[in-house]
Amino acid sequence: MESLLKWSLENTPANEPAAPPTAERMKELDPAIIDMILGKSDAVVMKEKLAIAKDESREEDERVEALDDFEMLVEQIDNANNLENLKMWEPLIELAHSTVPGVQRHAIWIAGTAVQNNSAAQNDFLKRDPLPYLLSLATSHQVSGSTRSKVLYCLSGLLKHNVGAVHRMNELDGWNTLKGALQDPDITVRRKTAFLINTLLLQDISSSGSTAATLHESDGPMVHGTDGAVSESTEGLVRRAIVEHKLIEALVQPSPYGPDGDGDAKEDADYREKVLQTIDTFVRNGGEVGNAAGAVSAFRQARGA
Predict the structure, then answer these.
(1) For site-directed labelling of 134, which of 11, 96, 227, 304 has its Cα 20 to 30 A away?
(2) Using CB atoms within 10 A of its CB, is residue 46 exposed (0-12), middle (13-18) or buried (19+)?
(3) More reliable by pLDDT, 122 or 213
(4) Listed residue (46, 130, 27) closest to 88, CA to CA
(5) Which pLDDT tens digit goes with each residue over 156-209?
(6) What is the pLDDT of residue 214?
(7) 3-state SS of the chain?
(8) Beta bridge partners of 225
(9) Which of 90, 13, 94, 109 has its CA nearest to residue 56?
(10) Which InterPro entries does this chain map to (predicted)?
(11) Quick check: 270 and 191 in contact, CB under 8 A?
(12) Measured between alpha carbons, how far is 284 from 202 in angstroms, rounded to an integer?
């Protein structure tokens, strides 16, 4: 600001009223000073942060910090939608494949934030068919528990209220992946998985037309599988998958967790709450626990539930 004041004083003749600077004089201004006065647009900042994140010559901490700033920007829906126009989805997906753990984790986090309750960003992301890779990471022990947790966060954002994404996951046998995630040694991953299953149940329209929540159909193109275009509804698909893949049993009969395998998920209040919510949603939507009734009852009674 002092530089701007100095420039203004030096370029204003004495005893003459100040006049707007000409285009020629504006060229003499340091661009950094102009940015200080007017402020950079979010699009410019996003480009700068992404450039830093892509620069493999920089330290991991610096790249992660840039991605952290980027993630805060895409919390705004306009910036999230602008990822397509700015051609940023491809480089973000490349960063999600990075061998640098922090960079990979933050890139996945950004994608998850961008698609939260945002059908336009969901469909832009889905055009790149990210589900096979995300599902492969969800149960991979080649990445950390914190990265798997971000993967579940991203999956939740992508699948919520998006029929095409749910059908694509079904094509990829994603239910077995979720079942595996319920045995993750990291309890945070298990909590997020239980939450995701409940979210999918809430938007699974029953054949009678009743549902715990109304499903918002995807605004994007239909997803095509091997047998042609998929239905525009997930009616009953989630409930059937839960029964077929025995997800209720997996929820209420958790294996020990933790680095030493000595944690009891049934004693984790957050996990318990999410599992009980999922069971209640399943039953309200017409599901029957069947052979899992005994295990469900035991889970409810554990720890005074």
Answers:
(1) 227
(2) buried
(3) 122
(4) 46
(5) 999 999 999 999 999 999 999 999 999 999 999 999 999 999 999 998 864 334
(6) 39
(7) CHHHHHHHHHCCCCCCCCCCCCHHHHHCCCHHHHHHHHCCCHHHHHHHHHHHHHCCCCCHHHHHHHHHHHHHHCCCHHHHHHHHHCCCHHHHHHHHCCCCHHHHHHHHHHHHHHCCCCHHHHHHHHCCCCHHHHHHHHCCCCCCHHHHHHHHHHHHHHHCCCHHHHHHHHHCCHHHHHHHHCCCCCHHHHHHHHHHHHHHHHCCCCCCCCCCCCCCCCCCCCCEECCEECCCCCCCHHHHHHHHCCHHHHHHCCCCECCCCCECHHHCHHHHHHHHHHHHHHHHCCCCCHHHHHHHHHHHHHHHC
(8) 228
(9) 94
(10) ARM-like (IPR011989), ARM-type_fold (IPR016024), Hsp70_NEF-Inhibitors (IPR050693), Nucleotide_exch_fac_Fes1 (IPR013918)
(11) yes
(12) 10
Alpha-carbon distances of 251 from 87, 96, 223, 233, 277, rounded to whole Å: 40, 29, 30, 25, 11
Are 171 and 225 a contacting pair, CB within 8 Å?
yes
- Is 0.85 topped by the overall pTM? no
174: closest CA among 191, 161, 156? 156
The confidence score (pLDDT) of residue 234 equals 84
What would the two tokens of residue 32 be? 């950094």
Cβ atoms of 197 and 168 closer than 8 Å? no
For 53-103, write each residue's pLDDT tens digit: 999 999 999 999 999 999 999 999 999 999 999 999 999 999 999 999 999
Q: How many residues does the chain have?
A: 305
